[in-house]
Amino acid sequence: MIKATGIPVLFCLIVVIAASGCRTSYYAVMEKMGKPKRALLKSSLEDASVEQVNTNEQFKEALLKLKEVYGFDGGDLEERYRSFKNEYERSVNQSELVRKRVGEVEQIGTDLFKEWREEIMEISSANLKAASERKLADTESRFSNLMTTLKKSESSMEPVLTQMKDYVLFLKHNLNAMSIGTLKEEAGAIEKDILRLISEMNRSISDTEVFIRELETEK
Predict the structure, then answer these.
(1) Is the pTM of this model over 0.85?
(2) Which of the residues 147, 148, 178, 214 has an alpha carbon 20 to 30 A from that of 98?
(3) Is 160 within 8 Å of 59 (Cβ atoms)?
(4) What CA–CA distance (Å, rounded) separates 131 from 133?
(5) 27-44: pLDDT as tens digits
């Protein structure tokens, strides 16, 4: 068992609070550490962007292994099948990480805007209140557009995973040279879907980076 040697007590407290689902307490602790919701949103967006980059690479690797299967011209077909199956399973795991990150981004963003609206109500100056309301409306609109892009790229993973699972099961039941021809006929569709997925992910990564830069300039 790995010992948590040298890990600050406060960090452990944060992990426990976050895991318990008590977001209010988590935000309070992070605020004291100089990490307001805006900073947490930026960090969450950066994490989401990294996972999307990793997802692109993972699906590219899975496609490469699939091509090695249906390009079979001798050798160990069982080994090629196992390699593709492993990449499929890694793709499933990587997709879950993306979903988790997108969910975190949405949750923190929702909480940030809720807090912002509540704080606007405490502003007594009509001019300052109106200016803050305009800024909130603009930022919330841009965030909503970003979430649409993130969720679109997230949803583009599912058709690819479904097809990969079909191929894994088909190969499991029909692992012979004759069945490879059948697989190759079906594989054109997944190549198109993976290219579409990569395109959606790249757009999402680009939009996320733009939003992060805008958050930084708004400090």
Answers:
(1) no
(2) 214
(3) yes
(4) 5
(5) 888 888 888 999 999 999
